Amino acid sequence: MGQTTPAIGTLLRDWRSRRHLSQLALATEARISTRHLSYLETGRARPSRDMVLHLSEYLDVPLRERNVLLTAAGFAPVFPQRGLDDPALGPVMDAVRTLLAAHEPFPALAVDRHWTILATNRAVATLLEGVAPALLAPPANALRIGLHPEGLAPRIRNRAEWRDHLLARLARQVEATADPVLASLRDELAGYAAPAQRQPAPAMPQVAVPLRLAVGEAELSLISTTTVFGTPLDVTLAELALETFLPADAASAAMLRALCSPHDRI
How far apart are CA 210 and CA 194, in angstroms? Predict the structure, then answer.
């Protein structure tokens, strides 16, 4: 028991630092005394189960890591983690597949917390021509496919801009989750050769960073959106995201409608 309390205190302090909060700021937001928070972080006091969950909520700790905090404090985890084939997640995965199919003829895919591709709609296959088979073999990683020299990278006409966008997004995820696998993926992707020069800025102002992808002699211009479940209580569900792409112009919309024909999913 004596070894558990310092561990939870260290973890709480680490998450507070990661969120760039002072003890006073967190204590004020969580409506506890600064002294009590200090005692929790230094191990002079042991948090209750409710206090661990209370602080986790204000620190926006991912559900997976909330279980870690609970275990470190001597309590059982409260957020279940199920496999995608678990019957309890059956309706969720059916809903995911329905959403992906409904997004056709525009590309959409479901990914886990490490950007492993879990499911796609048919339109995704239209974008993957020329990608090395090894990159598409399960467990295929969406970001690796996007930036690898044998993936989509040679066909991305604004590769420098798109690379910066993906790396910045991944860096934010690493900061938010402290996930070492994501940190390793970030380092890997950052190590890929950067484009020698950037494409000229478009004549019209952009409202979002597009993916400008060469398809034969033509160019697809796509903007991306991310959908997550709003109130998950399951670790697996909390880490599931739908990445969807929409045409940025009428020509891209027409091209996708023409390209989307039956293909096997990844």
Answer: 18
Count other C-beta atoms under 10 Å from residue 239's C-beta: 20
**Three-state DSSP state, 109:** strand
With beta carbons less than 8 A apart as the criterion, state whether 117 and 140 touch: yes
Which 8-state DSSP code applies to residue 263?
-
Query: Distance between CA atoms of 144 and 189, rounded to whole angstroms?
Result: 7
Rounded to whole angstroms, how far apart are CA atoms 175 and 186?
11
- Helix then strand then coil, in percent of the chain rounded to 5, is 50, 15, 40
- Cα separations (Å) of 75 from 14, 49, 50, 51, 80? 19, 7, 10, 12, 14
Q: For residue range 34-75, what is the model confidence (pLDDT) as tens digits?
A: 999 999 999 999 999 999 999 999 999 999 999 999 999 999
